Request: fold
Amino acid sequence: MIYKTVLKKLQLYLKSAFVRNYNVPRRALMYVPGDDSKKIKKSFTLDVDCIALDCEDGVAVNKKKEARETIRSYLDLGKPQRNIEYDLGVRINALDTEYWEEDLESCLSAKYLPDTILIPKVENSDIVRQLSSKIKNLIKTDSTINVIIYIESAKAFLNLVDICQVTESLSKNSKFQHVGLVFGSDDFCANIGATRTESSLEILYARQKLVLVAKAFNLQAIDMVYIKYKDLDGLKQQCEDGMRMGYTGKQVIHPGQVPIVQEAFLPTQLQIEWATGLLKSFHKHQKDGKGAFTYKGTMIDMPTMKQAENIVKLAKLKK
Reply:
């Protein structure tokens, strides 16, 4: 009986994860100013994993209203179809500003919801509770939305585990699912008074801590922006450093960065072989009516299955 129960839970989990768009790769998270219709249209033609229509840093104060209305007009038309699966998100303004509620109300009352809401400058779990309450009131259907949280200050890092624990708990009975963490390195450096260097050693601890906590909560970890957008060699090096740390993707500020970033965050051959073997083993045990099982000496649980599915999905994107 226990095996059948585990198997049923696993099947439901995988099905719901797919429906929620939870497993969509976010190798490149590309920001597009919400007030620039021309750039928004172009972004829909690019082979990029995640498009973040921006109401925050990419938009001037006197253009906030225009950005909100422009994004809403595109959401009302529906998500443009492409040959590849991708994530369409909206980055709202921080919850300590006067703009965030209108940002959220505008995009969540559109005819079609975005896949993801990106929340900058989250410093404590009270912000998450406030956000959760607002989302619950705005989404009137059975739909759920993904949430990605930005960690951008010393206080945020001190509270990071609590933020993720509360968000995970709220996700169970709310209208959203927490799917990722983003390292906001520039704001973090400004907050602690660090001097930026090409090596990024001054933020090594924070960069590694974000990955550690993200993986503890089965979240995607999205690395910092490489601001020298014309330096593609430097971008590639920073991507490879982030990938070796465990990051699953990177923030992008220019379309020219997308191909290098997405290539860098593809899985290795060894990872592909592990994931393919695991899924084959799962299907064999499923056919035999067995739920819990081990693979290469490890007891397999739901997050591990999700990780394997992610790797296989990414492997299909290899040229």
User: Anything to note?
Assistant: Confidence is low (pLDDT under 50) at residues 1-22.
